[in-house]
Amino acid sequence: MTPDDTAQNAVLAGLSESPFARLRALLDTPSTQSEHISLAVGSPRHKPPQFALDCLTDNLASYGDYPPINGIDSWQIAARDWLARRFGLAPEIYGAPHQVLPATGTREALFLAAQIAPDGPDKKFMAMPNPFYQLYAAAALSAGATPLYMNAVAETGFLPDPSSLSDDTLDQMRAVFMCSPANPQGAIADWAYLDQWLARAEKHNFLLIMDECYIDIFDRIYEASPPVSALNVAAKRPEGLKNLMVFHSLSKRSSLPGLRSGLSVGGENLMAQFLKLRMLAAPQSPIAAQKAAALCWADDDHVQENRSLYQAKIDLAENVFGANYGFYRPEGGFFLWLNVGDSEAVTKLLWEKGGIRVLPGTYLSAYLGAEAKGENPGAGYIRVALVGDMAEMKLALPRMHDILSAEGIK
């Protein structure tokens, strides 16, 4: 048997390479700078709350026990209290014991959510923004669905236009992935926008999967009135949470990506199916991690401090870049989405001349096919992750601007 004859998995064959694997291949040339700065990976590097780290240390012995997959009591209380406090929700809308569940990070939970989406002979699509978090496409393909990419560009406010899909397409929809604040553009979905998607989910019987992991990282204009959740909108609709699952994370909120701790909440029947699948196929969150997570969900002060650090770095970026590269202040999240003309060429330029790693927007997007003339909506952009400290930003951002300006890129 030759290597070409070996058995292959059709799902894996349909997956594209990770954006970061592609980035490593692109930046295979040396940089003239000895000091390298990575602004490519969206992994928060602010100091995590010390009380969470202390809690992990104090509960090391709990790693000797199997944790409950539906969450320890202190986690359940803290998570439900946070949902009520942060979004002003009546606890009754997620009152069933299984309606709020821990997850080992939103990545795992979002993947599994796709597996319980409505199916049937006439259900074949799962839609997602384009650009998008690559996990959405992997989840759709693994669920046996066809990914459907919806452009999220400047002309649509960097969110997909709900009216762009026909009723016939929506009838064939199994799930729609949505992210607010959006990754990478930072756009926040308002009440009316979310209401449009919920109305379509109810009418056409598909699952709306809301990735809200950046929802507590927002610009200062939202301080008096923080971004709403799809939960807020669903709570006011006759169908409630019936077609909705929402996911939150401590990775961004509390700068604890390594804790792998998230929160899942949704309709009663959906979450019953979700729990059934997780009990068979998902890892439990360790007891120590759940205890630390409970403390984080119960505390808002460290989140405000974390948010202020990001706001200060966006202030710096605004001062450095001005109106160049289509700069705008992201409403939420910690990414800059800069329009530089050719994302791969500029990424390579910034690396070779500045030792700075960014992520080409083309690696976060899908080509839309012949009807769209091969358009890739991220091809002209780079994603810049403001995850390092201010000292690093003060080195990296002016250096980027100098390199781009010298090349005549505006």
TrEMBL record:
Residue stretches making up the Aminotransferase class I/classII large domain: 37-396
Listed Pfam families: Aminotran_1_2 (PF00155)
Superkingdom field: Bacteria
Cofactor(s) demanded: pyridoxal 5'-phosphate
InterPro entries named in the record: Aminotransferase_I/II_large, LL-DAP_aminotransferase, PyrdxlP-dep_Trfase, PyrdxlP-dep_Trfase_major, PyrdxlP-dep_Trfase_small
Keywords attached to this entry: Aminotransferase, Transferase
Coiled-coil regions listed in the entry: none
Signal keyword on record: no
Protein's UniProt keywords contain Zinc: no
One GO molecular-function entry: transaminase activity
Protein name: Aminotransferase class I/classII large domain-containing protein
Protein's organism: alpha proteobacterium IMCC14465
